[in-house]
Each structure stands twice: as structure tokens, then as C-alpha cells.
Amino acid sequence: LMVGLLTISACATGSQRTTEFADPALDDLTAFVTNMGFDPTVSPLSEILADNKLELVEYESVANDVVDCLAARGIPAETYYTESPGTSGYGFRVDQPDGMAESVVDAAFEGCETTTQFTPVAWIWASMVGPTEDENEKIIGLIDKCLENAGFAGGREASFENPDLTDLRLVCADEATTEVLSRR
């Protein structure tokens, strides 16, 4: 059983952006977390937010806490870090123990991510390292141009209606993301 938590467009250069935020919403991480519906006073989130920045080592620690929590419930798991244009962040490989229902594993995972505050930390990370609104607009424009250059009128929006274009759209998205985010 593989559990990937966040599929958010983000860039691998995140560790360099832990103290400067391109998104004004991230100038106050406590407000950002509160606006997402999470309680910023809950540990370890309160400790992480104390200096108004998120370091990669803090994010990694919270991901490891999820693995430890699952292990305490008899569920083997490990973290993995994805670092490529378009995605940057922690996910989990979770082994379903023999005789344990998938619903039990899913409930344990959900409970562990809640008690460790993994979700709000992962959202902060993704928001910090992901493209800004301006960068996202440029990425979308490049994807549309790539698809149109390949002979598919209508760009990205038209490609959603045609499942045969999924692979091409993903290639165009990777290329566009790499091009735009490499300019940072």
C-alpha cells in the first residue's frame, strides 16, 4: 500500500526559501495555518511556527513522527522524499500487515497524520516551494503552447477531455515547470 499525501505543484528548491516567502499569505504562517482550518497552538505545529518559518529538517521530523506513530500501531511504514519539478515533499510507503484490514490501516494513517500535524506542515511546505501565482500563470501558458505545438488545439483545457493526451500534458507540464522555476 503506497500512500502519497500531497500532490501539489511545487519545486525542489524549497529548502532555499524557508525564510523568504514569495506569497504574501506566507508572511504570517500562523495566519496561513489558521485560514486552512488548523489549530496553530497544537504541538508540534506551535513549536514549528514559533519562528515563522519551516525548515526542511522540521518537515522531515514531522514525517518521521508519522512513521513512528504507525509503527506503534503495528504498521510498518517509511518516508520518501520526492524532489522533481512540479513536486517536492514527503510521502509514505505503508505496508499493510497480514490480517489487518485496509480500512484499519487507513484510519491509523489518518490518526497519525492528525496527531503529528503532518498535513498543515506539508501544506506550508508545498506553498513555500510551489510556484507563485505569476509563475503558475507562466507554467499554464507554456503547457498550452506545448500542446498546441504538438498539434492539439485548445491547450491544457482541451487535453483534460481527451485521456489520450494525459502523457503529453504531463510531459509539457514537467517541461514548463522546470523552465519557469529554473529562473528563480
Question: Can you walk me through this structure?
Answer:
- The protein is 52% helix and 10% strand.
- It is mainly α and 184 residues long.
- Strands 1-3-2 form a three-stranded antiparallel beta sheet, covered by helices on one side.
- The longest helix has 17 residues, at 56-72.
SSE order and pairing:
Elements (H helix, E strand, L loop, with lengths): L1 E2 L25 H7 L9 H5 L6 H17 L4 E8 L2 E8 L7 H15 L1 H12 L3 H17 L5 H6 L5 H16 L3
Antiparallel strand pairs: 1-3, 2-3
Helix pairs in contact: 3-4, 3-5, 6-8
Would you summarize the structure shown here?
By secondary structure, the chain is mainly α. It is 52% helix and 10% strand.
Largest sheet: 3 strands, antiparallel
Which structural class do the helices and strands define? mainly alpha
Strand content: 5-15%
Q: So how many helices?
A: 8
- Overall geometry: globular
Q: Gyration radius, to the nearest Å? A: 18 Å
Distance between the termini: 36 Å
Mean pLDDT: 84
Low-confidence stretches: 2-22
Q: Count all strands and give the number.
A: 3
The helicity comes to: 40-55%
Task: Give, in order, the helices and strands.
Answer: EHHHEEHHHHH
Strand order of the largest sheet: 1-3-2
Which properties best describe this structure?
184 residues; mainly alpha; 3-stranded antiparallel sheet; 8 helices; 3 strands
